[in-house]
Specification:
Blueprint: E1 2-12, E2 19-25, H1 33-43, H2 48-67, E3 72-74, E4 78-86, E5 100-109, H3 111-116, E6 124-128
Parallel strand pairs: 1-6
Antiparallel strand pairs: 1-2, 3-4, 4-5
Length: 133
């Protein structure tokens, strides 16, 4: 069972000028690598140090794969891949690597992840709070 905390925020409708109210996530608490290792260690027979070693290496493997133009399917989470943003040039012959402005990291959640985080999922609760709770 999961719980998403939200608060109600006032927002001006740009088309009508009327004030509207929308739900917005409360600020999320980041989970550190240390906390993540602790959680995995308690759920398995692997020590916290072993989990840390694996996750630390996984960070480097992910970067290596992304820099090698590969997509990474990461099980239940989904797929990570890169995309590029480039400047337009008048002809294909003038396009070089220097025309590439930046690399973006894209994430596509798996169908299972989409279901687990779907608002209509009965295993997910929503609790209204104050903005800074």
């Amino acid at each position: 069972m999961g719980t998403i905390r939200f608060y109600v925020r006032e927002l001006k409708n740009q088309k009508t000028g009327n004030m509207m109210y929308v739900g917005q996530n409360t600020p999320v608490q980041p989970v550190s690598l240390d906390q993540l290792c602790e959680e995995v260690s308690h759920a398995t027979t692997v020590t916290k140090a072993d989990v840390l070693a694996i996750l630390t290496e996984l960070e480097y493997v992910f970067v290596r794969m992304m820099r090698s133009n590969k997509s990474v399917k990461f099980g239940l989470l989904g797929t990570f891949r890169t995309s590029i943003k480039s400047n337009a040039v008048p002809s294909a012959e003038l396009f070089t690597g220097d025309s590439i402005e930046r690399i973006n990291l894209r994430f596509q959640p798996s169908p299972t992840m989409k279901y687990l985080l779907k608002a209509s999922n009965p295993e997910l609760n929503f609790v209204q709070t104050e903005p800074n709770e």
